[in-house]
Amino acid sequence: MADSLRDQLLKSGIVKQVQQDRVREPKRPGAPKSGKPGHKAGKPHAQPPAPRLPKGQDDIDLARAYAMRAQTEASERKRIEQEAAEQARLRRERKLKIQQLLDGHALNKADADQPRNFEYGGKIRRVHVDAAQWVALNAGELGVVQQAGRYLLVSREIAEQVRAIDPHPVALLIEPGTAGAEDDGVPGDLMW
């Protein structure tokens, strides 16, 4: 058979704790002798009051849990911020290396009149080249690198060095021996 609620409480040890708390409490004058407030003879007994932990114990455990949670969240935020700062530092270093590599190596000409279109970043982009650069770009001898919002025409070696540092800025680098005019097979003077 199932144990009564009283037997279950005794086995769990909670009743002993409640009884010890009652021993510590001074008796109040005018309390009924039965020990139960509002108890009248002839009425059925209501369930005994739910056992309570000592008053401060709940508060201490809850406060400790909140403190541990706050500490965990703070350390997680700090770790994420440190990772983001490290990633930003690495990006700045790569960008600086690429800038130093490209300084003085851009082959763009101010008088270049043929636009060479290519896809980069999901959009059609353009770099102006002359006839010799057009042929070299389509043959894979030259490449296009994006730097500071501009598209710079560079030698294949420089484009490959940029790719080794960070592949994202390399906008156009055709493999030699392939049909390089796939992006824009029409020479600039025949384009609309």
Structure, described:
- α3 (55-102) runs antiparallel to α5 (156-165).
- The model is unreliable at 180-192 (pLDDT under 50).
- The protein is rod-shaped.
- Among the domains are: 53-103; 114-190, no CATH class.
- The strands form two sheets. Strands 4-3-5 form a three-stranded antiparallel sheet.
- Helices cover 45% and strands 16% of the residues.
- It starts with a helix and ends in a 19-residue tail after the last strand.
- It has helices at residues 5-12, 14-24, 55-102, 131-139, 156-165, and strands at 114-120, 123-129, 142-147, 150-155, 170-173.
- β3 (142-147) and β4 form a beta hairpin.
- The chain is an alpha+beta fold and 192 residues long.
- 13% of the residues are buried.
Relevant terms:
disordered C terminus; DUF2058; alpha+beta; three-stranded antiparallel β-sheet; 5 helices; 192 residues; 45% helix
- Uncertain segments: 180-192
Number of separate strands: 5
Tell me roughly what share of residues is in helical segments: 40-55%
Radius of gyration: 40 Å
Oligomer: single chain
Strand content: 15-25%
Q: Which H/E pattern describes the elements? A: HHHEEHEEHE
Largest sheet: 3 strands, antiparallel
Mean pLDDT: 79
Alpha-beta content class: alpha+beta
- Spatial shape: rod-shaped
First-residue to last-residue Cα separation: 95 Å
What's the helix count? 5
Widest sheet: strand ordering: 4-3-5
